[in-house]
Amino acid sequence: MTSTQILDEHIHDVKKLLIEVSGIQDLTLETIDENSPLFDGGLGLDSIDVLELVVRLDKRYGLKIRNDENGKKVLQNVRCIAEAIASQRVPG
Amino acid sequence: MNSVKLWAAQRCRLSLDSTESLQSLSAFRRMTALQKAVLLSFARVAAAQPLALVYAREMQAPLYFTSTYGELGPMLRVTQSIIEHDLPVSPKDFQHSVLNASVAYLAMNHAWHQAAFAFSGGFMAPDSTLHLASRRIESGLERACIVIHAHEHQSKQTDDAEAEILILGSQQPDSPYLTLDESRWTVAEETFAEADPGRRIFREEDSNASIPWLIEDGKLLRKRLLMSRTRQALVTTWIPS
Amino acid sequence: MTAVTTREDIVVSGMSFATSLGCSNRSLREALLSGSRGLSFEHRFSDQLAVPLGELPWAELGISLGDPFDTDRILQEAAKILLSELNQKTGILNRYAKSKLGLFVGTTTSGIRGFFRAAELQKRHGSSLEKLLEADMQQACLASELADAFSLLGPNWTLSSSCAASAQALGLAFDSVRSGMCEAAIVVGADVLNLLTIFGFEALQVLDHSFCEPFQPQRRGINLAEALVFLAIERRPEVEADGAVTRICSYHALSEAYHMTQPAPDGRWMAETMRGALLKASLDPEEISYINPHGTGTEANDKAESAAVSAIFGTGRQLHASKRLTGHTLGAAGALEALISCLMLEDQAHSSKNNFGLSNSFGFGGANVSFVFEGVS
């Protein structure tokens, strides 16, 4: 797989996780834009939805996202999360 | 002493009643069964006895929430996840495991800024909370109180919880009402039995003891006695006016 | 309609407690004055999570610890020791008609042992949950245990509104004594450390993995701790005090109705809570000489509470954020900080004219409570 394909796959997975943890009925793989912000009028997620997502990402990918500046960068949108997953997996 | 009047009483069950009125609430998607049942009971009062709610808001009624076992679903999921070392635990479940989660959602969804108290009372939960509300109205500490009692049923796979809500106040609205006459913490069972053959006794030690709901078949039991394992007792009597 | 008209003083007439800073007035006062922390990386959960926690001196209490799930036994054993101690100091159990002495308990995780047992049974046998429900799976089991052991025949209530639990318990106890509903009351704030709260707060990412620093720029969150606090609440004429005592002037409780775990960021409801307490005490903000904030060390709380304090008291007010030393004792925090406020105000009772203090407790779900106390000689 090319790195673009890997990234697309992660984007797909993160979207699925988001739909699962948020329970928002209007959210589907098609309606989630991987570039729109998770908070503040973007996807309309609550801080607890995001924490729940963080826990799932930890369990599935071992991706640790802490509540700091770095964490905030990763949690900007679906693409950033997918990139964080990809970047921690590539070296292995 | 002020007399204590019942302004409204409703009981509903999540698996039997439509939740259509709640679907639009922003946080509905993430609520537990218990939380949904509590909101449903409130919506039921708003639909059936709206004036009672208007008065309660006017009188700055606090919210008194109680439940025997509280948020069973989230509590059991979090404890399960800990004994299985499946960590981190779910932040959502942990946040929802606190006893005041339902009443906090209720306050949020209805902008109810009066104090919200969450009481754990075990088997005695409904009557002991009602008792406190009643005594506070009697002594002039409150002009009205909203008492909510809820329980999550565990028998089914689907979300199933039940809640009842009673609005009490010191003044009398233009609707039929009852008066909460008497409630005590110590009473001899024999005295109670002799005094009134029309009463009902709920004993925690009965092997098939279930949750002692205040409202049965849409009505309040005129006189009841709750007896805990440790022999604490509470009598609740309603007088039709 | 009848309103509560009593003008009699309601006082904290006695106290007994166990905290990570010791179990005597002297050890707690000394630790507070010298700024010693009751927090440590070495504790009974250190192989589970490497964070500072504040443990009780269990050995000093003569209580042996079991496995990490064995929380209710140690909680109840400690509670019985402390209630006996309170009675030795005040005689409160014998001075009132049994049915007129109220018990108000604030706790979040009393009863947690039963939940772990149910989870274990379900895992092993797959039993249906309905069959696993037991009478000890509820916060109120501490109150029934105490009522049973000490033959308390008066009313008892257990508050479990998260971190405001024992503050609410104290508020209701104060009301019940001043209104005559009860002749006197015992307030309990009690929570012991357990895996539910440790892993729960870790999942919420609000634990500081080093020592907590409320209101400091380097704050990263809270340190969890355990405490049991017993307060005797009586009318002044009933109390023969030979030293200073603390009068409860007022309290105000409200719901933020804003968010499940976070306060309104501008602190408007926190300010409203403090304003309500001041109003009920007929005091101006300038008359408050001591402030014990909720001050947990989380960004959300401290920012909002700073804004709220500034809005009412102006900027630059000194806050005594005692959780920095005691840790956050959750359901016990309201009673513990009331107790700390009492100690601080009683110290100044002879030298200060305006000796009023304010204490805040803000729990999950926007359960806000503020108290105003006065140290009197």
Question: What does this entry look like structurally?
Answer:
The complex is a heterotrimer of chains A (92), B (241) and C (377). Chain A is an all-alpha fold and 92 residues long. Chain A has helices at 3-22, 47-61, 69-74, 78-89. The mean pLDDT of chain A is 83. By secondary structure, chain B is of the alpha/beta class. With 377 residues, chain C is an alpha/beta fold. Chain C is 35% helix and 20% strand. In chain C, a hairpin with a 3-residue loop joins strand 10 (356-363) and strand 11. In chain C, helix 3 crosses helix 6, helix 7 packs across helix 12 (333-348) and helix 9 (268-280) crosses helix 10 (299-313). The chains are: A mainly alpha (92), B alpha/beta (241), C alpha/beta (377). Chains in contact: A-B, A-C, B-C. Chain A binds chain B through residues 21-25, 46, 48-49, 51-52, 54-55, 58-59, and chain B through 27, 29-30, 86, 88-92, 95. Strand 3 of chain B pairs antiparallel with strand 4 (156-159) of chain C, so a sheet runs across the interface.
Write the layout of secondary structure elements.
The complex is a heterotrimer of chains A (92), B (241) and C (377).
Chain A: H1 3-22, H2 47-61, H3 69-74, H4 78-89
Chain B: E1 5-13, H1 33-48, H2 50-58, E2 63-67, H3 72-83, H4 91-96, H5 101-109, E3 116-120, H6 125-138, E4 144-152, E5 161-169, E6 178-182, H7 189-195, E7 200-203, E8 215-216, E9 219-220, E10 223-227, E11 233-240
Parallel strand pairs in B: 2-3, 2-4, 7-10
Antiparallel strand pairs in B: 1-5, 4-5, 6-11, 8-9, 10-11
Chain C: E1 10-18, H1 25-34, E2 53-54, H2 58-61, H3 71-90, E3 101-106, H4 112-125, H5 129-132, H6 141-149, E4 156-159, H7 165-178, E5 184-191, H8 195-203, E6 224-225, E7 227-235, E8 245-255, H9 268-280, E9 288-292, H10 299-313, H11 323-326, H12 333-348, E10 356-363, E11 367-376
Parallel strand pairs in C: 2-6, 3-4, 3-5, 9-10
Antiparallel strand pairs in C: 1-7, 1-8, 5-7, 8-11, 10-11
